[in-house]
Specification:
Oligomer: homodimer
CATH architecture of the largest domain in chain A: 3-Layer(aba) Sandwich
CATH class of the largest domain in chain A: Alpha Beta
Largest interface: A-B, 68 and 68 residues
Helix content of chain A: 40-55%
Largest sheet of chain A: 7 strands, parallel
Radius of gyration of chain A: 24 Å
CATH topology of the largest domain in chain A: Aldehyde Dehydrogenase, Chain A, domain 1
CATH superfamily of the largest domain in chain A: Aldehyde Dehydrogenase, Chain A, domain 1
Strand content of chain A: 15-25%
Number of helices of chain A: 15
Shape of chain A: globular
Number of strands of chain A: 16
Strand order of the largest sheet of chain A: 10-9-11-8-7-12-13
Number of domains of chain A: 2
Chain lengths: 414, 414
């Protein structure tokens, strides 16, 4: 049995025990995790420092080093997130439907955990705790595979969680870490169908595409957001400027930030001049020829620019002749995440919401609202950009599947 | 642009038009399809005869030839199935939830079609019409890829459907067929992520595994059913005999038929003797040593036998010491389809339903009830054996996803 197979088999064994536990047992384990994180603050920070030292040696960018860093405040934040889950309703055991057949057979559709969930992510170690805790609350076993940059932090965090889970009387294998971060092991991990039910990659487009192209386990794609705002000819200029500004500059590094700005030619001059005044060069602009007439551009936008998730103070601007052209542009370049129209036309608003193929389609509001918290989910494992299972923000309910329970007294089919 | 890319691009174009059509338009197109099938009966039969002639040349088994054959009655049956869909509610446009944020932003979660659905299936040409019609009713575009054995029948049926769809005023590319049935094209088809949203293989385990292992498009696995009945020590013998007999012999070729029989040792003698009397050698039995003491076996069961979907009058018998052992056996060998316990013990019934990991878990009733019709869905595209998206019978609602529509008046995130 290989290293990964043993890990998988242990996770699968733990899964069976998770099917029988109560909400109180899960919440108790979450409280133990939160406490243990707080109590082991010094240890976590010292292990994290090893990763930070390696990061300096590898000349990792300051921004990436910052994402990697754990301090008292961040550890407190992780513990708080875990405790917040305790207050949320248990997503398992909900009766989703049911009926009785004429022959007396009773059918009940009930929510159950997905099973063993594999999470593949990059360097932020807070994902480690967050993902494991959401899985635990939803009755799922998690097998975490973080990046090598955070390996010391992750080992320490997972060990702390496993001990806490055990202390709470659950199988410690309800949470585990793939400590071998080699590329070969990652490849094998994605094909572990026998033990892992679902794979959720969290990270940039490169990671997600690697998983989609190599995994044989069913995948939920999350978090790739090449989002656009379309400013229609009937748009209110002030709303449009605010929505575009908020989408681009409030937090450019996240997936619901906007990357493309589409402007109807009839309003391009008025709107782009207003935007130019607002931004005053704070945002790098790549535009087509028509846009360049009204706003200072840093270059002409190529097709690849429209397909790029900049995650930075950069935007690509495209001018169009119609709502149809804007919709076709979005359906061609978007990642099915969040898209917005700014318009005062009811017909164009309805057309846009009907024909744009994305998880969240906005009229006159910032795409930055696509978020588990804003959508009332309380917690979020990621934002799905695919159509199977869950679309948009994935909270606890989206981490469950269902099972039909059928009870009879000897019924057979005629 | 390759042949498949062109097909895919046309399907994607048709998808956009499908987002705007009404229930009446879809039902009208279904009626046109039903009428056209009836009117073109002679043509369908003559094209089907070409496939039947080839089947004889290839020395296809009689059973397979029968599955391939279309006659007046079967064509009428296809038309009736299409008309039945007209009477079912439209699964698109249902409001699944929603709320208003304190800032006035309105969020509505609404059901929408999956998009472009690829269906890969084997030789039964009635699947061609059935799958296309279910896709149409649920607002999806279908790209069908049937087996080479039925190519003439499929070409004829799809041409009839495309003309009918066009006559009803829809884009004829709402239904299309991959006429190149080569293995290379099949491989390319499974990676057409740009144009196809979901892939549904319908057929035997071999086909399904090929798709799961090669597709990069999200897959819904359907129809592989290695189902078991577990006869607990407290079982009512008469119920147990009837349920096992019904599961194995009422229609052995379907996925919800049973393949394994698990018997508690304490009841093995009494139960297996009763079953022996019922079957009188009509079913081929592979059993373990303990079972062989009480029922006439045709051989000792090996591990591979327990993993085999016989789809025939053959069953593998395993004796166990406990409900736990039965559950572990099922979770190891089953395909997560339908599993049954026959018991008079409430504790064992509950344990079994909780810990068995399958789409449908029965107490004291035949697994043959796992079916879209019995589950009240009206129509069924297949029975999902995976956990993502839909589990168990997939009806019209399961052929949809959802989209969040968010309406504001200039809200931005603070």
């Amino acid at each position: 049995m290989s290293y990964l197979e043993e890990l998988g088999a242990n996770a699968k064994k733990a899964e069976k025990t998770m099917r029988g536990i109560s909400s109180a047992q899960k919440d108790n384990a979450l409280e133990e995790i939160a406490k243990a994180l707080e109590e082991n603050q010094a240890l976590i920070i010292s292990e994290n420092e090893k990763d930070l030292e390696n990061a300096v040696k590898k000349e990792m960018s300051k921004a990436m080093q910052d994402r990697l860093k754990l301090d008292e405040k961040r550890i407190k934040g992780m513990a708080d997130s875990v405790r917040k889950l305790i207050s949320l309703p248990d997503p398992v055991g909900r009766v989703l439907g049911g009926h009785e057949l004429p022959n007396g057979l009773k059918i009940v559709k009930k929510s159950v955990p997905l099973g063993v969930v594999g999470i593949i992510f990059e360097s932020r170690p807070n994902v480690t705790v967050d993902a494991a805790a959401i899985c635990l609350k939803s009755g799922n076993v998690s097998v975490l595979r973080g990046g090598s940059d955070a390996i010391n932090s992750n080992k320490c965090l997972v060990e702390i969680m496993r001990n806490a889970v055990k202390k709470a009387g659950l199988d410690e294998n309800a949470v585990s870490l793939v400590t071998d971060t080699s590329r070969e092991t990652a490849g094998e991990f994605m094909k572990l169908n026998r033990y892992i039910d679902v794979l959720i990659p969290r990270g940039g487009g490169g990671l997600i595409h690697t998983v989609v192209n190599n995994a044989t386990i069913p995948v939920i794609q999350t978090g790739e957001g090449n989002c656009s705002v379309y400013v229609d000819s009937s748009a209110d200029i002030e709303k449009a400027v605010n929505i575009v500004d908020n989408g681009k500059t409030q937090r450019p590094s996240v997936c619901n930030a906007i990357e493309n700005l589409i402007v109807h030619r009839d309003i391009a001059e008025q709107f782009l001049k207003a935007l130019n005044e607002k931004w005053q060069g704070r945002v790098k602009i790549l535009g087509d020829e028509a846009a360049a007439k009204y706003i200072k551009v840093d270059g002409i936008a190529a097709s690849e620019d429209y397909a790029t998730e900049f995650l930075d103070y950069t935007i690509a601007v495209k001018t169009v002749e119609s709502t149809d052209e804007a919709i076709d542009f979005i359906n061609a370049y978007g990642t099915k995440h969040s898209e917005c129209i700014v318009t005062e036309s009811l017909a164009n608003a309805e057309k846009f919401q009907r024909e744009v193929d994305a998880a969240a389609v906005y009229v006159n509001a910032s795409t930055r609202f696509t978020d588990g918290g804003e959508f009332g989910m309380g917690a979020e494992i990621g934002i799905s950009t695919q159509k199977l299972h869950a679309r948009g923000p994935m909270g606890l309910e989206e981490m469950t599947t269902y099972k039909y329970l059928i009870n009879g007294n000897g019924q057979i089919r005629g």
